[in-house]
Write a structure and sequence with these properties.
287 residues; alpha+beta; Uridine Diphospho-n-acetylenolpyruvylglucosamine Reductase, domain 3; Enolase-like, domain 1; 5-stranded antiparallel beta sheet; 12 helices; globular; binds flavin-adenine dinucleotide
């Protein structure tokens, strides 16, 4: 329960943090809210020699609109996302999902960037970012690059972050006005990770589904974009039989493992149930 020894760094600027992370690509770790990393350190599953705290870097925090997109700084907490009225009006599914992350105490410290960079398949935000077509801004000594959320996750806890690189912000294109949305999460109790969860964003035109994206949480080693399931909906009326076919296709790509939340087959079936519920709620909300 006691972490190994480490040197604590508190850089004041992104440039300073990038230099520190680059100096310790293998034995250093960025620290954001600490709600995933510190428990791992206490269990000695992570033993960094250098901890680079991003908390004092003002440029990594905050929410702003730029062009047709929203830029959210990596160290913006889930609580700050929930409290941002402009963001909630433009991308309501973000607030809906953030409210399902853990509990108020965790959300007051846990950051969006930490949730996305950790690569934990149980985290709720990555599948949502895929569903929203978001991309991640990464900074390292070789400069900046932007990686789409759907290309970022490579395996459980394995991401496209290069050693020493920092996630600085997330760019989310604003969904069109009148879009429908829903995040459905099955969990055993408040504060639990998902048994299975689904994010849906869709638009209707002339009573038919015009666009749709579906993301799945915690039913595979990485978050999943259920593209084939979404394809089945395009041009269709939002009806239960159509949702059932999409759910069937979503279940087909799920690869959950058995854990305390249930056997693999149950969790796969629950992924389908979450997709059906999210589609029905999103369609009912769409103008
Ligand atoms: C009791 C409990 C319940 C929880 N339940 C849920 C839940 O239901 N859903 C959910 O989604 N999450 C849940 N979490 C996880 C929580 O949301 C974490 O806070 C979050 O996943 C990590 O964010 P953090 O800011 O705490 O990151 P940290 O713990 O500080 O960092 C996590 C990892 O990401 C890296 N990292 C952090 N920021 C950056 C960055 N900017 N650039 C590069 N690397 C970075 C760190 O080096 C570390 O490896 C729970 C946590 C707890 C303790």
């Amino acid at each position: 329960m006691i972490p190994g020894p480490f040197t604590y760094h508190r850089p004041r600027s992104l440039a300073e943090a990038v230099t520190l992370c680059a100096a310790h690509p293998d034995d250093g770790r960025a620290l954001a809210g600490g709600h995933s990393l510190v428990p791992m350190m206490k269990l000695r599953l992570a033993t960094p020699d250098h901890l680079i705290d991003l908390g004092a870097i003002a440029e990594l925090r905050g929410v702003r609109r730029e062009g047709g997109a929203w830029l959210i700084g990596a160290t913006t907490t889930q609580a700050a996302l929930i409290a941002d009225a402009g963001l909630a009006a433009a991308i309501p599914i973000l607030r809906e999902t953030a409210l399902q992350v853990a509990d108020p105490q965790v959300r007051s410290c846990g950051t969006l960037g930490g949730n996305l960079a950790n690569g934990d398949p149980g985290n709720d935000m990555p599948a949502l970012m895929m569903c929203l077509g978001a991309s991640y801004l990464l900074a390292g000594t070789n400069g900046e690059r932007e990686v789409r959320a759907e290309n970022f996750y490579q395996g459980a806890y394995v991401t496209a972050l290069a050693p020493g690189e920092i996630l600085t912000a997330v760019r989310i294109p604003e969904p069109p006005p009148g879009h429908g949305h829903a995040y459905e999460k099955l969990k055993r109790k408040i504060g639990d990770y998902a048994t299975a969860a689904a994010a849906v964003v869709l638009t209707l035109a002339g009573g038919r589904i015009a666009t749709c994206a579906i993301g799945l949480t915690n039913v595979a080693p990485t978050p999943l974009l259920a593209e084939d399931a979404a394809l089945a909906l395009i041009g269709q009326r939002p009806e239960p039989a159509v949702f059932a076919e999409a759910a069937r296709r979503a279940e087909a790509i799920a690869e959950p493992t058995a854990d305390g939340r249930g056997p693999a087959d149950y969790r796969r079936r629950m992924a389908g149930v979450m997709v059906r519920r999210a589609l029905a709620r999103a369609a009912a909300r769409a103008a």
